[in-house]
Amino acid sequence: MSHPLWSGDFYNEGTGKDDIFDTLKEECGVFGVYGHSDAASLSYYGLHSLQHRGEESCGMCVADGKEFNYHRGMGLVKEVFDKERMASLVGNMSIGHVRYSTSGDSRLANAQPLIFKYRDGDLAIATNGNIVNAPQIRHELEQSGSIFQTTSDTEVVAHLIARSSKDVVEAAKDALARIVGGYAFLIMTNDKLLVASDPHGLRPITMGKLGESYIFSSESCALETIGAELLRDIQPGELLVLDKDGLKEDRYTEPQRKALCAMEYIYFARPDSDLNGSNLHASRKRMGSRMALEAFVDADIVTGVPDSSISAAIGYAEQTGIPYELGLIKNKYTGRTFIQPSQELREKGVKMKLSAVRGVVEGQRVVMIDDSIVRGTTCLRIVNLLREAGATEVHVRITSPPFKNPCYYGIDTPDRKELIASNKTVEEICREINADSLAFLSPEGLISAVGGDNASDPSGGLCLACFNNDYPTTLDFDGEEKAGCGC
């Protein structure tokens, strides 16, 4: 009999509250190439570098100026694309996508890029993010005769473009101006590539160059992988158009208050990526250092929860002089398995991914650095792992403010009532996770650590809505139904 925690085809495929590993799910990642004869291979390596942003499905669409060649599949990049498949993807322009589904179903029909036929030829769209007002627009389009093929929010934009009487660039401007949310779009026709960022810059997207070719990626680490030079971030409200005439820098709306997702700095992006000119590893080290200044505790060792908290743990250790040790080891090969674990393993499911190093933590007072607490269940398991391995004290330090509010812009988060920080005080959470002490990084400390100090913007150019309930866009609905990524 299938266990209720095993909600998909794979044991650790479950989403949201059905996932025993209580962490925020990576969003999605996009990668685009314009003007390179081997666009598909570059996209393969780029998507592989963005794999951490989505492991459920991936896809790639390549254009040769006349027609599309594309492939999408469920699974990892290395599973979906083999040598024969890659050989069929011929063209000098490409967009690709890795996906973790949240508000859209986890099925092949929703894998991106989404491909459409319309009056002017072929259209492919890939996005990272969420369109808050997609349900209203979708209902309006269905009432006027549109037939949707997927449950993805992204298809709304395709319908808006296809129904317009204007050329694809002007139609895309109109479509983007209608939608509300956080997003980074790659839109491709047979002879054009369009790149757009939402008016607040909530979702990251960067531009690079490889020779005479232009490269676009959700994170700069993918540019580094293929040897491309990072040029700059795509600006809020900006629309780039690439065609036979070269690169045209345009915009579809005026930029609004800059509000890049703070969780990109805290958790999502790879430590070798840069955001707004700031390296993620360095930023996370500063978070740890600031955490030490705000909430020092006398201890014997500092350890970080792999992988996203290692940099912050190093920063905490350097600031305090307490030795940094590998007290927790991550099993990187749990992968996706059809084998359902026993009840005993299910109850201690975190041991499938993490192990405490007894020889390091036994008899020691441990400072455990983590990036966030969502429901508190995984944090409790990790604290207990350390205690079972012989730690005499476990002091938890979280390098973000308390996560109290759901995200509507592309992160898979539980309902507010399931977020432990929404319902309990710090002291109550401390008892809930079985820690000797608990402290969270202040919003001011976070802003300072990522280099967001700006007297004219108290939020430092970040979206902090998950911490302070200050959402940068209007939310025209009640309840929690649109938390997550609509791609």
From TrEMBL:
Similarity comment: In the C-terminal section; belongs to the purine/pyrimidine phosphoribosyltransferase family.
CDD domains for this protein: GPATase_N, PRTases_typeI
Source organism of the structure: Paenibacillus glacialis
Pathway(s) per entry: Purine metabolism; IMP biosynthesis via de novo pathway; N(1)-(5-phospho-D-ribosyl)glycinamide from 5-phospho-alpha-D-ribose 1-diphosphate: step 1/2
PROSITE patterns, per the entry: GATASE_TYPE_2
Swiss-Prot/TrEMBL cofactor(s): Mg(2+); [4Fe-4S] cluster
A Pfam family annotated for this UniProt entry: GATase_7
Residues at which [4Fe-4S] cluster binds: C261, C407, C463, C466
Sequence ranges assigned to domain Glutamine amidotransferase type-2 in this UniProt record: 28-245
Protein name: Amidophosphoribosyltransferase
Active site: C28
Gene Ontology BP annotations: 'de novo' IMP biosynthetic process; purine nucleobase biosynthetic process
Any one GO molecular-function label of the UniProt entry: magnesium ion binding
Role played: Catalyzes the formation of phosphoribosylamine from phosphoribosylpyrophosphate (PRPP) and glutamine.
Keyword field: 4Fe-4S, Glutamine amidotransferase, Glycosyltransferase, Iron, Iron-sulfur, Magnesium, Metal-binding, Purine biosynthesis, Transferase
Residues noted as binding Mg(2+) in the record, renumbered to the chain: S308, D370, D371
Matching Gene3D superfamilies: 3.40.50.2020, Glutamine Phosphoribosylpyrophosphate, subunit 1, domain 1
SUPFAM superfamilies according to UniProt: N-terminal nucleophile aminohydrolases (Ntn hydrolases), PRTase-like
E.C. designation(s): 2.4.2.14
Catalytic activity: 5-phospho-beta-D-ribosylamine + L-glutamate + diphosphate = 5-phospho-alpha-D-ribose 1-diphosphate + L-glutamine + H2O
